[in-house]
Amino acid sequence: MAIKVLGLAQSTCTLRVVAVAKALNIPLEVEAVDLAKGAHKSPEYVAKYQPFGRIPVLVEDDFVLYESRAICRYLANKFQTKDTVQLIPTDPKEAALVEQYISVETSEYGSAVGKYVFEVVFKPMKGGVTDPEIVAKAREEVIAALSVYDKFLEGKSYLVGESFTLADICHLPYGHYACQAGLADVFDSPERPNVARWWKTITNEAAWKAALGQ
């Protein structure tokens, strides 16, 4: 029986989960939640699946889990074997580094890139008007964050050495939409060659392309 995820296949946080499933060849069914009609805010959804009315939510028999990064960790811990890609390394130090970069993704990278994507992509979808000042400030925040990334990507193909891990996957969804919405030059800048190399590498991973339906 396939594990079910309530969400939208192309939404940022659902994409994160789908990419992990593709990397580990996990049978995963994405059941669409009609955000436009407010299905995620319905009393039943909030009571049964997600108390804050958000997506995605993993449903496996009577087990319900929300928050995309927690879902990703659960899938990796359950389905990763010695014969699969090691999204969470078995070495405790490398595993700790994965967690470190996921934390950095959430607090530093995500706050900047997420702000840009919300203002340029999601706000207009909800009927709002993009604020050029917020966009300009967010762009500078992304540049500042990626300038730091360029330093710790020195001499490495991925965030944790030479292996594609959950840390890399966590950065992909918001970065993907940011690049589509005007930040491609920031992610592929000669001023940050290590970031440019890393971004090209992880966006060409088979699991990510499969998650996007390419």
Automatic annotation (TrEMBL):
Taxonomic superkingdom: Eukaryota
Pfam family, one: GST_N
Gene Ontology BP annotations: glutathione metabolic process; response to toxic substance
Presence of the UniProt keyword Coiled coil in the record: no
Primary role: May be involved in the conjugation of reduced glutathione to a wide number of exogenous and endogenous hydrophobic electrophiles and have a detoxification role against certain herbicides.
Name of the protein described by the UniProt record: glutathione transferase
Annotated family: Belongs to the GST superfamily. Phi family.
Species per Swiss-Prot/TrEMBL record: Umbelopsis ramanniana AG
Keywords: Transferase
Catalysed reaction equations from the record: RX + glutathione = an S-substituted glutathione + a halide anion + H(+)
Domain GST C-terminal stretches: 91-214
PROSITE patterns: GST_CTER, GST_NTER
Gene Ontology annotations for the cellular component aspect, listed alphabetically: cytoplasm
Cross-referenced Gene3D superfamilies: 1.20.1050.10, Glutaredoxin
GST N-terminal domain segment(s): 1-83
Molecular function as annotated in GO: glutathione binding; glutathione transferase activity
Signal peptide start and end residues: none
EC number: 2.5.1.18
